[in-house]
């Protein structure tokens, strides 16, 4: 059976680009690995944050647009994005969040402790310690390698039809059901990062797309050949995937599972060094070839942004 190794990336919607960078790079210590535009709406940035090289399983992406309405987290969405931190780093992160005025709480799920908090737009995030996954070698501000976020631990899905979402996770994507605890059903993939998916069985409201919500979750395909097989499988199983689209840094296809969540399948290659070297990732606005002629116009329109060390780390 074909199996995904786990999450490729998660994409969300927010209002303010600089505030977004300050939180994910400045507070959480992730690297801005790509500053580009939404290929479908070039007037909106598309910002990618991950580990030092932006490896699959570490990257969260954002469409920051000041005019979009506030969304509501609920069914048909990724409800919570989970990150993995190194063993022993919980005290560091509790102190760091406290120092930057980020309110947090702790909870236990499947025997693991989670630090739960929201980003400035209301996205629900959590951190948990695990041995799995390589250390993130990116050091920025007050976050050093020994405490840095490794990448995704996984996600909590808010499905309108949990049994239908379960079918996709098990029978299409090849995840294994690990069991139920209270209102959560856990699944695991074969990868060592971005590999743990929980379905919350009792979400209370229907999700509304907008700022502060996840737009889609993407699953990993090994390469373009594997990607084609995923599309054939989806068609065979009665889903309606899009055509394969070129997103410059990966190939993508999309489909809605019956619980209402937008799923993407994305290729691991070519990655973020296809158009700029590792040492310069995220430093300049990168455009696809077909929009290069509009660079001056786009740079004038898009708000100026920068990655900066925040006052709390100076």
From TrEMBL:
Gene Ontology terms, MF aspect: dioxygenase activity
Domain of life: Bacteria
Cross-referenced Gene3D superfamilies: 2,3-Dihydroxybiphenyl 1,2-Dioxygenase, domain 1 (3.10.180.10)
Keywords: Dioxygenase, Oxidoreductase
Matches recorded under SUPFAM superfamilies: Glyoxalase/Bleomycin resistance protein/Dihydroxybiphenyl dioxygenase (SSF54593)
The keyword Ribonucleoprotein is annotated on this UniProt entry: no
Limits of the VOC domain: 6-130, 151-268
Protein name: Ring-cleaving dioxygenase
Organism: Neobacillus mesonae
């Amino acid at each position: 059976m074909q199996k995904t190794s786990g999450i490729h990336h998660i994409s969300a919607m927010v209002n303010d680009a600089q505030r977004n960078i300050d939180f994910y790079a400045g507070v959480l210590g992730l690297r801005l690995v790509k500053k580009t535009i939404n290929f479908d709406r070039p007037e909106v940035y598309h910002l990618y944050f991950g580990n030092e090289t932006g490896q699959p399983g570490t990257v969260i992406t954002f469409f920051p647009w000041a005019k979009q309405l506030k969304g509501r987290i609920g069914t048909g969405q990724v409800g919570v994005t989970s990150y993995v931190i190194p063993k022993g780093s919980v005290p560091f992160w509790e102190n760091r969040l406290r120092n930057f005025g980020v309110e947090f709480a702790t909870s236990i799920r499947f025997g693991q402790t989670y630090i739960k908090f929201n980003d400035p737009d209301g996205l629900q995030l959590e951190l948990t310690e695990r041995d799995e996954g390589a250390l993130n070698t990116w050091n920025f501000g007050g976050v050093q390698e020994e405490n840095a976020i490794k990448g995704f631990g996984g996600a909590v899905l808010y499905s309108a039809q949990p049994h239908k979402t379960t079918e996709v996770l098990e029978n299409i994507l090849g995840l294994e059901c690990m069991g139920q605890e209270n209102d959560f059903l856990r699944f695991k993939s074969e990868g060592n990062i971005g590999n743990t998916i929980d379905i919350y069985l009792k979400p209370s409201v229907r999700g509304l797309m907008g700022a502060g919500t996840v737009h889609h979750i993407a699953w990993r395909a090994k390469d373009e050949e594997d990607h084609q097989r995923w599309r054939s499988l989806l068609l065979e199983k009665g889903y309606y995937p899009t055509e394969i689209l070129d997103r410059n840094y990966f190939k993508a296809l999309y489909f809605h599972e019956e619980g209402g969540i937008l799923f993407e399948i994305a290729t691991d290659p070519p990655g973020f060094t296809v158009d700029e070297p590792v040492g310069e990732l995220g430093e300049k606005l990168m455009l696809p070839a077909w929009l290069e002629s509009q660079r001056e116009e786009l740079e004038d329109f898009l708000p100026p942004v920068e990655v900066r060390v925040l006052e709390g780390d100076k």
